[in-house]
TrEMBL record, chain A:
<dbReference type="InterPro" id="IPR014353">
    <property type="entry name" value="Membr-bd_ADH_cyt_c"/>
</dbReference>
<dbReference type="GO" id="GO:0005886">
    <property type="term" value="C:plasma membrane"/>
</dbReference>
<protein>
    <submittedName>
        <fullName>Cytochrome c</fullName>
    </submittedName>
</protein>
<keyword id="KW-0479">Metal-binding</keyword>
<dbReference type="InterPro" id="IPR051459">
    <property type="entry name" value="Cytochrome_c-type_DH"/>
</dbReference>
<dbReference type="Pfam" id="PF13442">
    <property type="entry name" value="Cytochrome_CBB3"/>
</dbReference>
<feature type="binding site" description="axial binding residue">
    <location>
        <position position="203"/>
    </location>
    <ligand>
        <name>heme c 2</name>
    </ligand>
</feature>
<keyword id="KW-0472">Membrane</keyword>
<keyword id="KW-0408">Iron</keyword>
TrEMBL record, chain B:
<keyword id="KW-0285">Flavoprotein</keyword>
<dbReference type="InterPro" id="IPR051473">
    <property type="entry name" value="P2Ox-like"/>
</dbReference>
<keyword id="KW-0274">FAD</keyword>
<feature type="compositionally biased region" description="Basic and acidic residues">
    <location>
        <begin position="165"/>
        <end position="180"/>
    </location>
</feature>
<dbReference type="InterPro" id="IPR007867">
    <property type="entry name" value="GMC_OxRtase_C"/>
</dbReference>
<dbReference type="GO" id="GO:0050660">
    <property type="term" value="F:flavin adenine dinucleotide binding"/>
</dbReference>
<keyword id="KW-0560">Oxidoreductase</keyword>
<protein>
    <submittedName>
        <fullName>GMC family oxidoreductase</fullName>
    </submittedName>
</protein>
<dbReference type="InterPro" id="IPR006076">
    <property type="entry name" value="FAD-dep_OxRdtase"/>
</dbReference>
Length: 471, 552
């Protein structure tokens, strides 16, 4: 769903993002005649919601001018211009229209948005926060009078009105209400994690209609090339063995030596959003995540960060005649200079260790493969962590599918989960964006089925909505 | 996107035919392919994988490492040998009083010798372009520093050079645009030596480098493996292969194991085709509108001489008889000593700082300038060798290795030869490569200008060593090569005494360019690659102007 090259946007959120008003921010807000505190609040919320992830084109796109093609399994969905431009953006929106777009996926002109826009999460936002966001976008974001490309999904997905049915089934359009049985911190965390932060958008698996599956919240899902892992508090399949400090550090920096490093879309979320949240808000997210229902995958036997140990093979190899197998040779030539022959990484952990690492210990190799072919790119706290990918155009080496499989298997055997195996076909699949959901694979064939089903579905709508509201 | 078109027999037609896929050929290929021209590159050598070279390096012997074998770990195409020294393969025959000073290490491989350079990206000084006018020695270029300056900027931007933003640390200071990245920060040794020697006029400055401490585009940051030569294990150092891939993405096609050997010319002496042998020794022909030989300072003149034809009986582009003459390199010496305090060289990139005080001055009318690189290559190898020779064992051995590695200093001193027509590359009458093509012979004499410069440098070395409390000062007594090969296709305004014009276009052939080190009429004392690339980009602009003006 989210591919390489989305890493460098959003630098504009740097200084002011913590809600601590910079002098410039104050001045701008006052010039616009607005309430500086409200604008700062809106700015912070926009950062927490990571609007820029999609609405600002990476590598120098103007803030919130849209145009970035979100690579959905169904085709590119172009993010809208959400600057206050009256001709190309949302400048003419009333606050009510703005709220409907954000929380219900209904554009100002009445057209339906695709759920690439996580309005099913944002539906929980309070009116007060919608107001702050609206004021921020209208008063501080600079208008850009350029229209991004139009989205053209293949039939039948180009029928935006079909989203009305989808919304009837899957959009729970109720505002967040604190659970009185839970602490204020957990409630705050829930609002941040599921509302603004839309963690569930990636970490909750989806059904055949691309809607999140109830009862599997944060249970882990494939995002295409990358896996958003199970982050429920299960000690084997989830993050039950992580301390609160570990989780906090992960969200703040993307790097917990001996456990995990953020890459792919999670690196982007940390780079553009989480690192700028207040410590209290991060702790609230941690508190919330730690108390969601634990989900266990029967295939998991040990925590994914518990596999492997340092290797002593380097000393045994040198001076011995005979050739290394391809995987070990590539490991020695392309990996060991940074991750060290023993896999322990560098002392400052800029180059992470390969054992006790979720990428090598997971029960699926997707994130290991994706890290090798796409690389890792994460700028946090001014430090740019960068592992080049090993695909075409790599500054280090271009590896074939078989090469990646071989070196990946070497790493899994020596440092990770040895039961996991990678084939060249697995690598090819990840290179091409990972496994496609059923909806994308069946494409147009779904139309006749839908036509027949739609009557039944509509009949079910009332029931489902009613059930959801009860639950 | 334009692509070359291939016939069933393997002949090819393209707008632009480039021989050589090193940094110069690759940058030109990328520019012209991106401008919409079809481009084919003929590369004599193999296409290599970095992991193979790194693995070869890991398995290299201590002896080869300590003696800086940069060539042996690069597999060679069976039909396109390049120099080897462990043991010597005598591919290049050397003679003359300083023949041994011309033992060049260059690669014939896709991406070229920048696989194992040190990524130093120096500019010539403005004065270097006017040696005859300013100092009455050597030659003037056909262009000025100001003419080349915009191309220096473009070369630095293409290669992602980190250099000092502080003008006081720039050599030269004359720049129209800043370096793409600020200098690689000095290490402890650089800072300490600067404190000690700069008050005495030596002017230690950072070396501009084709690497960076933050990622540059998709190039990873340098983490100081200190292994630039013979191979950067992580791709953090600029390498011509990076522009080869960019050129291919823009539509260019690279043929490896394609050894060019013959050049056809028409009645107007325009080049019409270049012939090559493939890996099966089968001959093919590349026809086109624009031709470039970018095979660096030895293979370009060798090919020009090999390709002599009926209309050009002494060699292509050689009506002046200057092809293969004026061969130059920064013949240099090494000075090693132990400082009286630990300086810890060997952390960070292999080259970091350099003394440029003696780079220019009125003395250049009588003897050579020099620069002294404060080599930042780890001293552990030599320190170990020296400690073992002392017969030490156990803890004493370990302590001595540590002391020598920490205090060891190696100055790599480069001197500036003058272009001398008698320093000449010719075709061997006795030695042939596996395709039966004559190997190159080179006669070399560094000349009195360099010898006098070396005497002056020896005094400066003593002074520097003294300022660092140096002991065991050893200065090599014979000159060593620095792989900065220049002069063999020399640039000049007068077609009677030079091979190419200010765009590196051959005087004799309106559609043939010979960019690179061979064109450089003065050596300065600095590494040549940035000047070669700047000349390459300038040449590419003139090729594009010919296409646009209907002259190609």
């Amino acid at each position: 769903m989210i591919g390489k090259g989305r890493a460098a946007w959003g630098r504009y959120v740097l200084g002011p993002a913590l809600g601590v008003m910079s002098m410039t921010g104050v001045a701008l807000a006052q010039d616009a005649g607005g309430d500086a505190a409200l604008v700062a609040r809106g700015r912070y919320l926009a950062t927490a919601a990571d609007c820029a992830a999609c609405h600002t084109t990476p590598h120098g796109g103007r803030p919130f001018a849209g145009g970035y093609g979100i690579a959905s399994p169904l085709g590119s969905i172009y993010a809208a211009n959400i600057t206050p431009s009256k001709v190309a953006g949302i400048g003419a929106y009333t606050e009510a229209q703005f709220g409907r777009a954000v929380r219900e996926g209904i554009r100002g002109d009445g057209a339906r948005l695709y759920p690439a826009m996580p309005y099913t999460s944002y539906a929980r936002l309070t009116d007060a926060d919608i107001h702050a966001l609206y004021v921020y976008f209208m008063q501080e974001v600079r208008p850009v009078d350029e229209r991004p490309p139009a989205t053209h999904l293949p039939f039948p997905f180009n029928l935006r009105f079909s989203m009305m049915v989808w919304n009837a089934l899957y959009l729970d359009n109720t505002r967040f209400a604190p659970d009185p049985a839970k602490s204020a911190e957990v409630n705050r965390g829930a609002y941040l994690a599921i509302g603004l932060g839309h963690c569930d958008t990636c970490h909750t698996p989806r059904n055949v209609m691309m809607a999140e599956i109830g009862g599997k919240e944060l249970g882990g899902a494939s995002l295409g090339a990358w896996i958003a892992p199970n982050i429920t508090p299960d000690p084997v399949s989830g993050i039950g063995n992580w301390s609160s400090d570990d989780l906090f550090r992960y969200l703040k920096t993307g790097d917990v030596p001996g456990k995990a490093q953020a890459a792919g879309p999670m690196a982007e979320a940390i780079e553009h959003s989480f690192q700028y949240l207040t410590d209290d808000d991060l702790k609230a997210i941690v508190a919330y995540v730690r108390q969601v229902p634990a989900l266990r995958d029967a295939a998991d036997s040990r925590p994914r960060e518990s596999f492997g140990m340092a290797s002593g093979r380097e000393a045994a190899l040198r001076g011995v005649s005979g050739t290394l197998d391809n995987g070990e040779k590539i490991f020695s030539g392309d990996c060991a200079a940074c991750h060290q022959p023993g896999g322990q990484g560098s002392r400052d952990s800029y180059y992470p260790q390969l054992f006790h690492n979720t990428a090598t210990g997971a029960s699926t190799p997707d994130n290991l493969i994706a890290a090798i072919v796409e690389g890792v790119d994460r700028t946090v706290g001014g430090q740019h962590v960068f592992m080049p990918g090993f695909s075409h155009g790599s500054y280090v080496d271009e590896l074939s599918d078989q090469d990646v499989a071989d070196v990946g298997n070497y790493v899994l055997t020596h440092f990770g989960n040895p039961a996991v195996k990678i084939s060249a076909a697995d690598v090819a699949s990840i290179r091409h964006g990972g496994p496609k959901p059923l909806l994308a694979r069946v494409g147009g064939y779904i139309v006749p089925a839908l036509a027949g089903a739609v009557v039944v579905l509509l009949a079910l709508v009332g029931l489902v909505v009613a059930r959801r509201r009860r639950g | 996107m334009a692509h070359p078109s291939f016939s069933g027999s393997g002949d090819v037609t393209a707008d632009v035919v480039i021989v050589g896929s090193g940094v110069v050929g690759a940058v030109i290929a990328h520019q012209l392919a991106a401008a919409g021209h079809s481009v084919v590159m003929l590369e004599a050598g193999l296409r290599l994988k970095r992991s193979d070279i790194v693995e070869n390096w890991r398995n290299m012997s201590f002896h080869n490492r300590v003696h800086s074998d940069f060539q042996g770990l690069y597999p060679q195409a069976p039909l396109a040998p390049a120099p080897l020294y462990f043991p010597a393969n005598d591919y290049v025959g050397l003679s003359g009083p300083d023949g041994s000073a011309f033992q060049q290490g260059y690669l014939r491989t896709v991406g070229g010798t920048t696989w194992h350079w040190a990524a130093s990206c120096w500019r010539h000084l403005p004065a270097d372009f006017r040696m005859k006018t300013n100092y009455g020695v050597g030659r003037d270029w056909a262009i000025s520093y100001d003419d080349l300056e915009p191309y220096y900027c473009r070369a630095e931007e293409a290669m992602g050079v980190s250099g000092p933003h502080d003008p006081d640390l720039q050599s030269p200071r004359e720049r129209s645009r800043p370096y793409p990245r600020d200098m690689i920060p000095f290490g402890y040794g650089d800072r300490r030596v600067a404190e000690l020697v700069n008050p005495h006029g030596f002017r230690l400055v950072p070396i501009p480098q084709g690497r960076s401490i933050q990622p540059f585009e998709d190039r990873p940051s340098c983490c100081g493996n200190n292994n630039c030569q013979p191979i950067c294990p992580i791709g953090a150092m600029y390498n011509g292969i990076q522009h080869v891939v960019k050129a291919e993405d823009a539509g260019a096609v690279v043929l490896d194991q394609a050894v060019a050997y013959r050049i056809d010319t028409d009645e107007k002496n325009r080049v019409t085709a270049i012939h090559w042998y493939d890996a099966e020794r089968k001959s093919h022909k590349a026809t086109g509108r624009t031709f470039v030989l970018a095979c660096n300072g030895i293979e370009t003149p060798r090919l020009l001489l090999l390709a002599a034809n009926e209309r050009n009986p002494t060699g292509i582009a050689n009506s002046s008889d200057q092809v293969g003459r004026n061969m130059m390199d920064h013949s240099g010496v090494h000075a090693t000593f132990l400082a009286n305090e630990p300086l810890w060289f060997g952390r960070g990139p292999a080259q970091s700082s350099c003394i440029v005080g003696p780079r220019d001055g009125g003395f250049r009318s009588s003897y050579s300038a020099n620069k002294m690189i404060l080599n930042n290559i780890s001293r552990v190898g030599p320190a170990t060798q020296q400690a073992l020779e002392l017969g030490l064992v156990g803890q004493a051995l370990e302590d001595e290795i540590r002391r020598r590695a920490a205090c060891g200093v190696d100055l790599s001193v480069s001197l500036e030869p003058l272009p001398d027509p008698d320093n000449r590359l010719t075709l061997s009458r006795t030695r042939r490569d596996p395709l039966g093509l004559a190997c190159p012979d080179i006669h070399y004499d560094v000349g009195e200008y360099v010898r006098k410069g070396a005497v002056a440098a020896a005094e400066q070395i003593k002074q520097v060593a003294g300022l660092l409390g140096g002991t065991e000062l050893r200065v090599t007594t014979s000159f060593n090569a620095n792989n900065h090969i220049m002069g063999g296709a020399i640039m000049g305004s007068d077609p009677k005494d030079s091979v190419v014009d200010g765009d590196c276009r051959a005087h004799d052939h309106a559609n043939l360019w010979l960019p690179g080190g061979g064109a450089m009429p003065s050596a300065s004392v600095v590494n040549t690659t940035l000047s070669m690339v700047a000349l390459g980009i300038k040449a590419a602009d003139s090729m594009q102007a010919d296409f646009q003006g209907g002259r190609a």
